[in-house]
Amino acid sequence: MRTRLAFAVAIVIAAMSALEIVRWNVWSFGTDTGTFAQIVLHAFHGFTDGPEGGTHFRFHWSPILAVLWPVVAITRSPFALQIVQVVLIALCAVPLAAIVRTYAGERWATRVGILALIYPPLLSVAFEEFHELAFYPLLALALVWAADRARWGWFALFSLALVLIREDVCVDLVVIGIVLGIFGIVRRRTDGAGLLAGEPIEPERLTIAGFGLAALSLTTLLVYFFIVVPRAGGWAPSHFYDYPFAHGPVQTALSAFTHPLELAHAVITFGRFTYLLEAFAPLAFLPFLTRWTWLALPGFAGVLLASSSIVWRMGFHYSLLWAPWLVLAAAWALVHMARSRGEQVARRWWTNALSITGIVLVAFNPMHPLHYLRAEPYQHTANALRALACVPHDAPLDTHDQWFAHVALAYPHSTNIDNGVARFPGYIVYATDWRNGYVDTVLIPRLDAAVRAGRYAIACRFGTVVVLRPTRR
């Protein structure tokens, strides 16, 4: 049975990698793929990149990215990170199956592993542009396995890795660590069946480990926000939590007490409701049958309290903050059901979950394959490649998001076009027929004005692709 799960993992990795190859070749990956390639390559030189205009630590606390330096340094391709992300997401099935195997045997370990492999909120992120949160589900589930089996050395190792992923992960882990610590206290008398069964093997050490995880996470947050952020120049993502009555995540969280009606009016929306539906429905709502679903609450809170809809849009990487806890809860619900109500009942629920997942992937696929696997005529053309070849590789380069994703390493001083493009001190490569309202109404008029003013001159033109170079006066 372990061979079957390994085969299923390999199939998912192969299938998703094939889709990644197609997407790479139609040039539909956006800025983040190129941005993280630059960050990883500069991991030992400040974690800097072009689009963020300096160190990535101004946006997120992500030292774990340094472990990917050999991958990028050897391949010299941003695409390598996409394959890494596929592997990290697919491997989530392994620790989940290891947890279930102890309680319900190999058959159910394989079943829940397969469910995790095709769970849309996880699978869709494997197809998205690379983000450091891809590390989180695998390490979070591995942490639970270590706590469940009282493998405290592994627990410490996974804890250390987890707090190096991102600051919002640390916020979640503070809460989760406290929960585990309290659980160890209230479950002192036990026959050692296991953590998920409510009978931790070593409750005293679980208490120490849980509170230790919370302390480590809190310390990491304090170091990041009081030492790293001031030196990096502020924390850029705070605008994702701006409301008229609160600014930033802390004020937004406190507004639950200071402005409860305003906050409720802002966050109780149809879009957030459908987001929750997309989270629970593919698992046949099994997480509602177990208390372990509460571990997903901190992740859901961080996502659903955001004022920006991009945070709670399925298919984006923010779902990784809660998705591992929901698959864990669904897995335990199935195990408990098989024990209490019989194998057939549990298997029926598992089949229902697979069926709903299939419907979601066919009719409401958050990967949006019809969009991202289609070659747009203005994205990847021979003219674009010829135009990029006009730019010296050591020169500053500003270009469209999708083109930047491909040239981020070939042009180490490259970045993506933004509102400051008409003042960019380097080459600008753009397409006049780019199907985008911003390009038509803002970008092209600004660049045309800059050319007329003499700040730029046309260096090359191939069809609709234009290369501008700054003039020297």
- Multimerization status: single chain
Mean pLDDT equals 94
What gross morphology would you assign? Answer: globular
The rounded Rg comes to 24 Å
Unreliable parts:
none
Strand tally: 9
The end-to-end span amounts to 72 Å
Q: How do the strands line up in the largest sheet?
A: 6-5-7-9-8
Described by strand count, sense and barrel closure, the largest sheet is: 5 strands, mixed
Q: Provide the helix percentage.
A: 55-70%
Binned strand content: 5-15%
Order of helices and strands: HHEEHHHHHHHHEEHHHHHHHHEHEEHEE
What structural class do you assign from the helix and strand content?
alpha/beta
User: What number of domains?
Assistant: 2
In short:
The chain has helices spanning 2-25, 31-41, 69-75, 79-90, 93-118, 120-127, 136-148, 152-162, 167-186, 203-232, 249-258, 260-267, 270-280, 297-304, 323-340, 343-363, 369-372, 382-388, 401-407, 437-452, and strands at residues 48-49, 54-55, 242-243, 246-247, 397-399, 414-416, 427-431, 456-462, 465-470. With 473 residues, the chain is an alpha/beta fold.
Describe this structure in words.
It is a single chain. The protein has 473 residues and is an alpha/beta fold. The protein folds into two domains: 2-371, no CATH class; 382-470, no CATH class. Helices cover 58% and strands 7% of the residues. It has 20 helices and nine strands. It has helices at 2-25, 31-41, 69-75, 79-90, 93-118, 120-127, 136-148, 152-162, 167-186, 203-232, 249-258, 260-267, 270-280, 297-304, 323-340, 343-363, 369-372, 382-388, 401-407, 437-452; strands spanning 48-49, 54-55, 242-243, 246-247, 397-399, 414-416, 427-431, 456-462, 465-470. The strands form three sheets. A five-stranded mixed beta sheet has the order 6-5-7-9-8. Helix 19 (401-407) links the parallel strand 5 and strand 6. Helix 5 packs across helix 16 (343-363). The model has no long low-confidence stretch (mean pLDDT 94).
